[in-house]
Design a protein that fits this description.
The chain has 431 residues and is mainly beta. It contains 1 helix and 35 strands. The strands form 7 sheets. Strands 1-32-31-30-29-28-27-26 form an 8-stranded antiparallel β-sheet, with no helix packed on it. It has a 7-stranded antiparallel β-sheet with strand order 11-12-13-14-15-16-17, with no helix packed on it. Strands 2-35-34-33 form a 4-stranded antiparallel β-sheet, with no helix packed on it.
Length: 431
């Protein structure tokens, strides 16, 4: 079944006019033509009545035995749920259910009192990340459990990023504290190399995996290290002129972008040798991100700047957009929406020209690099589901999920949504 398409931001020409609109003469209809038309009309009536009498197709809906307030993640045929074990919200367990039936498979207590917020699947393990606040200590930690059985494997401080060689990079600290690094084997937690908490950290990714790490200090040298071995690849003092503190550094593609000094200056360095490429004064910067053919800077003056990554030349700037990112060769930006919704638009990255307005949605992505789905409350109840085609600038309505509150997670071919009573239901999306 193909849903209707809402065409947003795409101009279409009207139908071609009849080149000869004058009335035409025709011979009177013959009797056999009337009989044929009557037969066709009767056939159409019968087909319509038959379709109306047929029961509507049953929707594939599964109610899952997950308690209200749980944090859930779906991986293939497995649904994982972080659930409370009693009166204390800090005592949690991880439960696994087989999809699509929702049959319980196993449950395992989590070994530390913490506010858990992350679930990651890696090399047959389930990595549960949270912030420990119990009597055993304070700080971020990761617990590894066996995906098939829930058996406890190991526990380490920090939150994890997968490396290109399959090992796991764990970062501890943050939130104004120096970040410590350790790389461990996911099978058993064996430490491969580590750095004590002495610096802030940025990571370069090759696809979805960490490739290199940057350790920078506000009043000291900056290092680029190989993420697999910890070997130092480049080292330099990147503090701004006058030796003022370095406010922040950020990896954007093959560049390391820093900000600091008076007035506030953004400077780009090549990540291989930390060689200076360009510098531009823009005032305080809240964040920077790779927007494909440009770099996006969000300034303290509530402006979004598009910077040429090769020369540092400002391509355009606007106070209309909150933030931007590259998707499918286009630049998506967001503006203020209504409540939890964001308004999404598509721009030409080099000029800032608006190409399409996609409307207000909560966005979900179907896997890495997969399709974008948007949800929003339907006026009559439930949740409207749309598929966003960024390159075409269109939204195709995929479904209306009647018993959902809008707390959803996209899975290939399915949508997992919370219901008003706090339970979860899995809805099969139509093609």
């Amino acid at each position: 079944m193909t849903g209707p398409v809402i065409d947003l931001g795409v101009l279409r020409h009207g139908a071609e006019p009849d080149p000869d609109p004058s009335p035409r003469l025709s011979r009177p209809p013959r009797a056999n033509g009337r009989r044929l038309r009557c037969a066709l009309v009767l056939l159409l009536v019968l087909v319509t009545l038959g379709a109306a009498a047929a029961p509507p197709p049953r929707r594939a809906v599964v109610t899952l035995p997950v308690p209200p307030g749980a944090d859930v993640l779906v991986d293939g045929d497995l649904l994982l749920s972080i659930e409370s074990t009693g009166a204390s919200t800090l005592r949690r367990r991880l439960a696994a259910y087989r999809l699509p039936e929702g049959v319980p498979l196993w449950q395992a207590p989590l070994s530390a009192e913490a506010r858990y917020w992350g679930l990651t699947l890696l090399d047959g393990m389930v990595l549960v990340t949270g912030y420990e606040i119990g009597p055993g200590g304070r700080g971020t930690l990761t617990i590894a459990l066996d995906r098939a059985t829930g058996a406890y494997r190991w526990q380490q401080p920090g939150s994890g990023t997968e490396l290109a060689d399959g090992n796991l990079l764990l970062q501890s600290g943050g939130e104004g504290e120096p970040v410590g690094l350790r790389v461990v084997d996911p099978c058993c937690g064996t430490v491969r190399w580590q750095v004590p908490p002495t610096a802030d950290v940025e990571i370069q990714h090759a696809g979805q995996r960490a490739n290199r790490v940057v350790l920078y200090r506000r009043n000291g040298p900056t290092e680029v290290r190989d993420a697999a071995t910890g070997a130092v690849l480049a080292r330099a003092d990147l503090r701004p002129p006058g030796q003022g503190p370095l406010d922040f550094a950020q990896v954007l593609g093959d560049l390391l972008v820093t900000m600091g000094g008076e007035p506030s200056t953004v400077t780009a360095y090549g990540l291989d040798r930390l060689d200076r490429r360009w510098s531009v004064t823009v005032g305080p910067v809240e964040f920077a991100t790779d927007c494909g053919v440009v770099l996006c800077l969000r300034t303290g003056a509530n402006e979004l700047w598009a910077i040429d990554p090769t020369t540092g030349v400002t391509r355009w700037r606007s106070d209309r957009w909150r933030w931007g990112w590259s998707y499918d060769g286009r630049l998506m930006v967001s503006a203020d929406g209504g409540g939890p919704l964001e308004r999404y638009l598509v721009l030409d990255a080099l000029t800032g020209r608006q190409l399409a307005d996609l409307g207000q949605w909560q966005l979900y992505q179907l896997g890495v690099g997969g399709k974008l789905l948007g949800t929003r409350r339907h006026p009559d109840a439930g949740v409207l589901v749309g598929e966003l085609d960024i390159r075409a600038g269109t939204v195709r309505v995929r479904d209306v999920v009647p018993a959902a509150t809008g707390e959803c997670q996209a899975i290939t071919g399915n949508l997992l949504c919370a219901t008003p009573d706090g339970s979860y239901q899995l809805w099969a999306l139509p093609d």
